[in-house]
Design goal:
By secondary structure, this protein is of the alpha+beta class. Helices cover 32% and strands 48% of the residues. It has 3 helices and 7 strands; from the N terminus they run βααββββββα. It has a 7-stranded antiparallel beta sheet with strand order 1-7-6-5-4-3-2. α1 packs across α3. The longest helix has 27 residues. The radius of gyration is 14 Å and the shape is globular. It comes from Paraconiothyrium brasiliense. InterPro entries: DUF7053 (IPR055481). It holds the Pfam family DUF7053. This is DUF7053 domain-containing protein.
Length: 139
């Protein structure tokens, strides 16, 4: 199941600044996880590719999952590997700066119930994440 979210980059914010914001793993984790409780580096280099153990508050309660962030020239790739009580969930996203927009391509994999729940969450929360990231890039 795939989903695309695109948000216009505000005037006065250049693509390089947005990419630098995406490459800041601490900023990405804080933006992707609004209910963040804690996170720790599991492996890798936070300046290129790193895997984190993230504990986050979700509507269904507290959850811990692996988040891998990989910096690429025009953005960042994120990979969530979670094991909610109803099955496994993988959310792979490519965040790119393209023609004045922050574009996120999201692939969701899991059983039917998990995919449906995750898709609703992505549709609801990811535009807010884009807005937060772009506000941080303006600062």
């Amino acid at each position: 199941m795939s989903h695309t979210i695109a948000t216009s980059i505000p005037s006065g914010v250049d693509a390089g600044t947005v990419i630098a914001t995406l490459h800041n793993h601490e900023v990405m984790i804080a933006s992707l996880c609004p209910g963040l409780i804690s996170y720790e580096l599991v492996s890798g280099d936070k300046n290129t590719e790193a895997t984190y153990s993230v504990t986050d508050k979700k509507p269904i309660g507290q959850t811990t999952y692996k988040l891998t962030l990989t910096n690429v020239n025009d953005g960042i790739d994120s990979l969530v590997n979670a094991k909610p009580p109803v099955g496994t969930l993988t959310i792979a996203a490519k965040w790119r700066v393209v023609r004045g927009q922050l574009v996120e391509e999201v692939e969701i994999d899991g059983n039917f119930m998990v995919k449906k729940m995750a898709k609703g969450n992505v549709e609801k929360t990811h535009p807010e994440q884009h807005t937060r990231l772009l506000e941080l890039a303006k600062a």
